[in-house]
Design goal:
The chain is an alpha+beta fold. It contains 5 helices and 9 strands. The strands form 2 sheets. It has a 5-stranded mixed sheet with strand order 7-8-6-5-9. Strands 2-1-4-3 form a 4-stranded mixed sheet. α3 links the parallel β5 and β6.
Amino acid sequence: MSVEPRVNEQIRAREVRLVGPEGEQVGIVPLERALQLAADVDLDLVEVAPMARPPVCKLMDFGKFKYESALKAREARRNQQQTVIKEMKLRPKIDPHDYETKKGHVMRFLKAGDKVKVTIMFRGREQSRPELGFRLLRKLSEEISELGFVEASAKQDGRNMIMVLAPHRNVKAAATASREGRTEGAEDTTAPEGETVAVLPEVVTADQG
């Protein structure tokens, strides 16, 4: 939890090490003198290093300082944004109606700026027909090409075949702008049946979109 620094009369020390508005060192002065200097130049006296002995205080426009700090914090959150990878599971002989439903979920995820791990699950004799999985994944990648691209090509992994789709850069940018325009709050973590969600650190990849 962040705590705002003490300002002006909130400062408790008898004397402070004063720093001017341009970063110049004024030296150690009584608190009353520092407050008077702040008033003379119409600035605030802000305690920037409370643990120092004596504490370090700086003359600044505290309102402007808070505004700029909020902008920096927002930019830091944006740079540390996490990538959400959602998984969609299909069977190689999926019913056409079910396929369209699952494809709709994939498109929705991509529009939201998320990556999608598409898993084809083989059972029994289906494992001897990998071409069914390749064909289905190729069809899906072609039909969602306006929203995303194949970041990791289809490959066999035991009884499963996996392909990773990622949104095009412009699609992800639009989704990010939309999220930033809404009030921050708890996100809905409920996923439709057959979907799982994994949150992984952002991985920078070459732009293929």
